[in-house]
Amino acid sequence: MNKVNILPSDTNIKITLFSEVSVGISANSVLFFAHLCMFFEENRSKPIDLCIAFLSLTQLMLLVTMGLIAADMFISQGIWDFTTCRSLIYFHRLLRGFNLCAACLLHILWTFTLSPRSSCLTKFKHKSPHHISGAFFSLCVLYMSFSSHLFVLIIATSNLTSDHFMYVTQSCSVLPMSYSRTTMFSLLMVTREAFLISLMTLSSGYMVTLLWRHKKQVQHLHSTSLSSKSSPQQRATRTILLLMSFFVVLYILDIVIFQSRTKFKDGSMFYSLHIIVSHSYATISPFVFIFSDKRIIKFLGSMSGRIINICLFSDGYGP
What is the pLDDT of residues 197-244, one digit of tens each? Predict the structure, then answer.
């Protein structure tokens, strides 16, 4: 493995990756701050706000660690030691799993929230934030239990070159495993992630079915079929479909690119595309949440007004 030539010299790759990380960090910071403030300020705080805060926080931390990893990929000359490599790369891999767990929990919570009173899921509607936090951390522990093997495979290879290592950064690589161990851990990983994505798909399909039925009932009772203004239910349906479709498409593309990278022996272009695609959801999804929730827009408007007033007052323009 020649580490000097593993990454493309094209600066467009670097600009794209660092731009994606910067935009994603900014958007997730705004989303996390807005939902956390709304959760504590509103008289009847919604558990779903806490769940979105969890999702935005995991995506924020994921992109921050990706920024550090990208710096070692493109800028530094392999200065990380063994401890830094193992800790940061493993933490980044866990955050990718936590992001999947948070997205899965969010879709399940949406299902509970939108369920009709006659549904057996109604009893889960008013669970306390402690239940939401417990469910999230339980999913995270489940994910970690299947990823512990990666911790011992990450090594510092700043002064080593070998065709058998899988390149990660200028400082770090992943040790190869035997065919039997690779097959076993791959099967566990596929089972785990297929289970979580199946939960997301089923909950999203259930929600869309409920919202479609509600829309038909409203149209029948109020004759709103000719109304050009979209209802909250329609906006919710679009948000759910957009997020779920985007997540599944990116996940499948992620798998295809990763397999292509493995087949073509760590090709630099496949590696770069894999990094960009695998972090696209964390970068784009916050904008979907922000622009589909009028509460966030109003909150950001009020916050910007406060900041402007503070700036004017500090400059001597206030009363």
Answer: 888 888 878 777 777 776 676 665 655 444 545 556 566 667 777 888
Owning domain of residue 178: 11-219+230-302
On whether residue 6 sits in a domain, the answer given is no
- Residue-level pLDDT at 66: 92
Is 250:281 a contact under the CB 8 Å cutoff?
yes
Domain assignment present for 290: yes
Rounded CA-CA distance 188/40 in Å is: 39
Kindly state the average pLDDT of the residues 264-280: 79
Length of the chain: 319
Could you tell me which residues come within 8 angstroms of residue 219 by beta carbon, excluding any fewer than 6 positions away? 225
Has residue 96 been placed in a domain? yes
> pTM of whole model > 0.85?
no
In a domain, 2, yes or no: no
Burial of 130 (0-12, 13-18, 19+ CB in 10 A): exposed
SS3 156: strand
How far, in Å, CA of 76 to CA of 171, rounded? 9
The number of distinct structural domains making up the chain is 1
Pairing status of strand 154-156 against strand 166-167:
unpaired
pLDDT higher at 260 or 148 = 260
Query: What pLDDT, on a 0 to 100 scale, did the predictor assign at position 2?
Result: 46
Chain centroid to Cα 197, Å, comes to 13
